[in-house]
Amino acid sequence: MATDNIGALTTAFVPPSACLYTGNIWQIHTTYTDGPRADRRFELFGAPLDASPNCYPKDYSPRKYYSPGVCPSGYTIATAQTNAIGSLTETTHICCPSAIPMNLQTQRIPNPNFPFLDTLRCESTYTAKGTFTLTSSEEGREPTPAVYMHPSKPGAINAYAVVVRFQATDFASKTLSSFSSTSSPSLSGTTSSSPAPSSTDISKDSGLSTGASVGIGVGAGAVGLAAIIGTVWFILRSRKKKQRNAYSDGLPACSDKQHPMNVYANEISGESALQELGTTAVAVSAQRPSELEGR
């Protein structure tokens, strides 16, 4: 039973792929100095701790637990237990490798007949006769590949478990802070993940104050309105000019013979012109004298 806290394991540990492939089965030969069956061998999924320490989280021990902690990657929860500690509730997960079907150890622990099971909390049972390739490990010898034929009687492949404990509040604040630091507001119906810059952000980026930004906006609007008025005035003026030219082109040409009054136009001033003839002043009318019809 895990009784000591190793420390936090709040990020899922990812073991190397070689640690969890289905063929990583070992046969361990053990020798104990006490007990009725001191010389035993058992099948283990995953390499022994001393042969592959990198397959387990930092400072791992099968007799200890991580708190707060989460199961490593490639492991599944074999069992979950909930314990009430005063007003708090603590959950314990026993995590087993998921490469092959694993369950919680069914043997009684501690077991004088199988003392090695004290640290092997996971097992995958078999009932039919069969063979599988494994790595044989014996004290004082190099590990060697071997083909193992297991009997028809029930047996099991064992594995080390990773035990974690946590309270609901251990991850609530982390989840909230992670969401606050990574999420960004977005409008419904948009696909962009980045928020559109606000007017305040734009003003800050351009180095302009709010008053200067408003002044520039009003000035730009006035210039645009003046440009529109000027364009309309120019178009109307051009149309009127074309109409006058068209009207002038449609009038008949004038000559002095058609309009004899033009000959005397420079003599019409609204007053009688005085001319001297000897010593008598004669008033000359501005109108053209009428001619009498001949008899």
UniProtKB/TrEMBL annotation:
Residues 177-201 have a biased composition (Low complexity). Keywords: Membrane, Transmembrane, Transmembrane helix. This is Uncharacterized protein. It comes from Karstenula rhodostoma CBS 690.94. It comes from the Eukaryota. Residues 177-205 are annotated as: Disordered. The chain crosses the membrane at residues 214-236.
